Amino acid sequence: MTMFFDSHIHTSFSADSEMRAEEALARAEEQGIGLVFTEHLDYDYPSAGKEQFIFDPEAYWTAYEPLRAAGNLSLGVEMGMMASARKKNAAFVQRVPFDFVLGSIHFLECKDLYYPETFAGREKAEMYHEYFIVMRDEIYAHPFIDALAHIDYIARNATFAHPEISYGDFADDIDAVLRALIETDTVIEINTRRLSAPRGIKELAPVCRRYRELGGHYVTIGSDAHVPQGIGRNYDRARELAHAFDLTVVTFRERKMQICEA
Ligand SMILES: [Zn+2]
Ligand SMILES: [Zn+2]
After folding, report:
1. Read out DSSP for 29-82?
2. Among 116, 233, 230, which Cα is nearest to 163's?
3. Which residue in 255, 261, 250 sits closest to 99, CA to CA?
4. How far, in Å, from the CA of 179 to the mean position of ligand 1?
5. Residues whose CB falls within 8 Å of the CB of residue 153, separated by 6 or more in sequence, listed in order
6. Cβ of 198: how many Cβ atoms within 10 Å?
């Protein structure tokens, strides 16, 4: 057993963060939690000419391994899952002894779900269906990931009037994703980004319940912080959500699951 960990944090090794490890750790210590750094690795990032979401794992290890020794920091990677990147992703995790590998879907048809233009001219039902199918396929194709990040990522920047991944509207698709997780021994992350609003909790609750019904037991909790103020945000809400559905909060160290306890 270990302390509670915020298992999704970006620092300056991620192209879109300038956070220093020391300031992240100071903020975590104030809250009595540990951290897992999960720097962005998105091979074949589609937007040519923009920043590259790739980092040097050896430099990462050299920089942060001394900080890792105390036990309240683990070192991971957030890996963009895409058909063209499968082999490169598998090779990348062998380069240093990562504690944790988090898998994400950030792109659809090679378009970045971060940008509003990705949603232009698309119809929500078919687009979200495609998102979940890709997610399911990439979970099976990446059996080496430990957890799936932000199942509701598509809702963050979608331009639809109702961007949520409402379980009732996508039950078969979401079930297929959850079954893929359970069959591959992959846990699900409760990403705390969308838990500031009651709506975010309401939409994620049935996903947690269904994950448990299908045989899931464990979740990681991640704030996806890119700045110190984001660390641990809504952590208690995520923990309550997990406990409401009989799910156990875990983190990973040396790729092994650790149960978190107060
Ligand atoms: Zn992400
Ligand atoms: Zn992230």
Report:
1. HHHT-EEEEEEEE-TT-SSTTS------HHHHHHHHHHHHTTSSEEEEEEEE--
2. 116
3. 255
4. 21
5. 104, 105, 106, 113, 191
6. 9
Q: Which of helix, strand or coil describes residue 180?
A: helix
Q: Which residue has the tokens 């990403």?
A: 191
Query: Helix, strand, or coil here: 223?
Result: coil
- Using CA atoms, how far apart are residues 54 and 6, in angstroms rounded to an integer? 22
Residue 160 alpha carbon to ligand 2 centre in Å: 22
Can you list the domains of the chain with their CATH numbers?
5-259 (3.20.20.140)
Tens of pLDDT along the chain (262 residues)? 899 999 999 999 999 999 999 999 999 999 999 999 999 999 988 665 667 899 999 999 999 999 999 999 999 999 999 999 999 999 999 999 999 999 999 998 778 888 888 898 899 999 999 999 999 999 999 999 999 999 999 999 999 999 999 999 999 999 999 999 999 999 999 999 999 999 899 999 999 999 999 999 999 999 999 999 999 999 999 999 999 999 999 999 999 999 998 7
d(CA 234, ligand 2 centre) in Å = 16
Report yes or no on whether pTM surpasses 0.90: yes
Residues 6+ apart with CB under 8 A from 228: 19, 23, 24, 26, 27
Q: Does residue 186 contact residue 139 with C-beta atoms inside 8 Å?
A: yes
* Ion ligand 2 neighbours, Cβ < 5 Å: 78, 224
User: 106: CA distance to ligand 1 center in Å?
Assistant: 6
